[in-house]
Amino acid sequence: MKLHKITFALSALALAAASFSANAAVVFQNLGTAAPPTSIGGYTLTPFSLAPQNAIPDFSNISTIPGNPGAGVLGINPQATKYPFSALGATWGQGYSGPIYATASTSTLTLPPNTHAFYFYTLVNAWGTSTFTATSDSGTNSGPISVSPNALGGPDSANGVAFYSTAGESISSITVTTSSSNGLIFAEFGIDTGPTTTCASSGYSGTQLLWCVKICESGLTGKALDDWIHRWIRQYRQLPYCAAGGNPPPV
Fold first, then answer.
1. What domain of life is recorded for the organism (predicted)?
2. 28 lies in a domain?
3. Among 27, 165, 191, 234, which residue is least crowded by beta carbons within 10 Å?
4. 6 or 172, greater pLDDT
5. Do 231 and 177 have their domain in common?
6. CA dist list (Å): 65 to 27, 207, 211
């Protein structure tokens, strides 16, 4: 009977592990016109600093946007033109009044290394209602998002876009497209400064800590992730914190 119970428990864990591996993904969240979140998907978010952005000469063409509170830079391709906020001629929202970046109708933001959550706000560079679509390098897609710039004191109109990972995957890039030939305007960026729960903060140590990092924080997917989860189950007879709903391991 005891053997049967152990076998049943391990089978349940294996099913849970398979579900976790299959559902590990990058998730999109539409922020609308609300203020930027301070956290998302278990990650703490920090806005980009405006000081180094303000230092860029107005009307310069740039391929990187400074201000990342961590390591690495935010790239933009094709190049964007930096404008002062006063040049916008439309409401933006969220109390933002920093630099804005105008670029082409299809533009790719290349994120700093090891990014797990990121947000930005955007407008289509055209009057009236237009749409844009944001897609991460993983293929996660926002679908068409409507924005309505208004130069006559209308409602806040820049729309926020956020992507975050669910199992430690890194997000490498986000491509934004619009059918408007006038292009896109970006501003108001934020990035994760670390997960609120980590393998180390959950109390793992030694080999268990190393294996937890492989599963939860190294960005593995597919068979590689599945192999590490099953190795973990055979050794510890439980799931790591990130596959068990974020719960720390039993003492």
1. Bacteria
2. yes
3. 234
4. 172
5. no
6. 24, 39, 35
Q: Are 218 and 165 in contact (CB under 8 A)?
A: no
User: Closest Cα to residue 108, out of 120, 99, 91?
Assistant: 120
Domain that holds residue 231: 198-251
Residues 61, 89: one domain?
Answer: yes
Q: Is the same domain home to 212 and 184?
A: no
- pLDDT beyond 90 at 221: no
Give the pair of three-digit tokens for residue 148. Answer: 């309505």
What DSSP element (H or E) covers 14?
A: helix 2-23
| 248: pLDDT strictly greater than 60 | no
Kindly state the average pLDDT of the residues 55-73: 95
User: Burial letters for 5-44: b for 16+ Cβ neighbours within 10 Å, e otherwise?
Assistant: eeeeeeeebeebbeebbeebbbebbebebeebbeebbbbe
Per-residue pLDDT tens for 88-114? 877 788 889 999 999 999 999 999 988
Alpha carbon 220 to chain centroid, angstroms:
16
CB neighbour class for 134 (10 Å; exposed up to 12, middle 13-18, buried from 19): buried
As given in the structure block, the two tokens for residue 217 are: 């924080």
Same domain, yes or no, for 63 and 155?
yes
Could you read off the pLDDT of 10-33 as tens digits, one per residue? Answer: 454 555 555 555 455 788 999 999
Taking the C-alpha atoms of residue 124 and residue 15, their distance in angstroms, rounded to an integer, is 45
